[in-house]
Fold this sequence. Notes:
By secondary structure, the protein is an alpha/beta fold. 32% of the residues lie in helices and 18% in strands. It has 2 domains: 2-171 and 327-345, Glycogen Phosphorylase B (Rossmann fold), CATH 3.40.50; 183-314, Rossmann fold (3-Layer(aba) Sandwich). It has 11 helices and 13 strands. Helix 9 (280-290) links the parallel strand 12 and strand 13 (295-298). Helix 1 packs across helix 11 (329-345). The radius of gyration is 21 Å and the shape is globular.
Amino acid sequence: MEIAFYVHHHGSGHLMRCLAIASALKNCHITFLGSGLEQHKSVIPGDIDLIYLPMDTPVVEDHYFLNQSQEGLHYAPLNVSGQLQRVNIITSFLASRPKLLFVVDVSVEVAMLSRLCGVPTIVVRQHGLRDDLPHQICYRNAIGLLAPFDVQMSGKVPAWINEKTFYSGGLSRFAPSADLSDASKRNVAVLIGSGGTSIDHDFLNHLSGQCTEWTFQVVGNSQNAQNINNLHFHGKLEDPRDILADCCIVIGNAGHNTVMECASLNKRFIAIAEERPFKEQEEKAIIIDKLKLAMHIPASAIFHTDWKEMLENLLTSRPNWTGFIRSDAAERAAAYLMSTHHSIFQYN
C-alpha cells in the first residue's frame, strides 16, 4: 500500500503524530513530505522516504510578492517562488504514485491540491473553531477525517463532521501509566514548546520568585540557560519521560502533544493557552478544564496569577485521564488508513 503524509512544519506535534501512525502501518510504502524535515532526520526511520519542500513564504528575490485577501483558502500568496516550487514537487510526487492515499497533517491548501489531482485524501482534524469556509470546503472534499483524540475532546462540531471522523483515541508516544511521583518533593516540570510560547525567561523568573519552596525542571529550548536557585534547565530532550515521571505537576502550553503526554502519564496539568489561529489551544484548554483534567490559564494572565496558591491547590486532588489516552491509538489510526486504502482500491 502506498501511503504518504504531508507534515506541517509549525511545532513538532504534526511530525510526532505522523511518526507514531507510520510506525504502526504494516506492509506499506510510506513517504513524508514537508518543509524542515531535514532537521528531524535523526528521529525519522530510514525506511520512510522523505521529500523536502521549500517554504511558501516570500524571500528577497520575490520582487512581486502580493498577499491579497482570498476566499476559500487560508494562505495562497501571489508571486512567491517557493510556493510554486512546492506545488510542483507535490503534484509531481502525486503523479508518480498510483493507488496512493494521502494523509494531510495539516494544510487546507495541500488537501485541496491533492483533491484537484484526483488523489484520495484523509485530513487530520485539530481543535479550535474550524467553521470557516476554507476548513468547511477542505473537510467536505476529504474522503475521511482522522481525529487523534477521544470523542469527548471533540468540541462542538456539526453532525456531518462527527459522522465523517474516525476518532483514534488519545495518541501519545508514552504508554498510559499511573502517576507515581512524590508530591512532597514539590517538583514541577515546565515544558517549553517549539511552536511559539509565552513561557520565557521573564515568566520563569516570575514563577521561581513566587514559588520559592518549589523546584522547576525546565525542558525545552531555553537558550543554554544556567541553573539558578530553584530553576533547573535541561534543554531540549528527545525523551523527557524520566523528568515528567518525577514531577507531580506539569506546566506547559495546550498544544496537542503536551496535553496527550500529560494525559498518558496521568499528570496534574496547568495548560497555558497561547493565541493560535482558530483558537486551537484555547478550545482544548477549556475542554480539559471543564472535564476537571487540568487548569486553564490564558497566556495573557500568566503574570496575574497566584502560582503558589494554584500549585498548592492542585496537590489536594488528582485528575483521572482514564479513557482519554489509548495505548493502541496509533494502531487504530493505522488500521483506519489501511482499511480506507483497501476499500478505495479494492484489493482482493
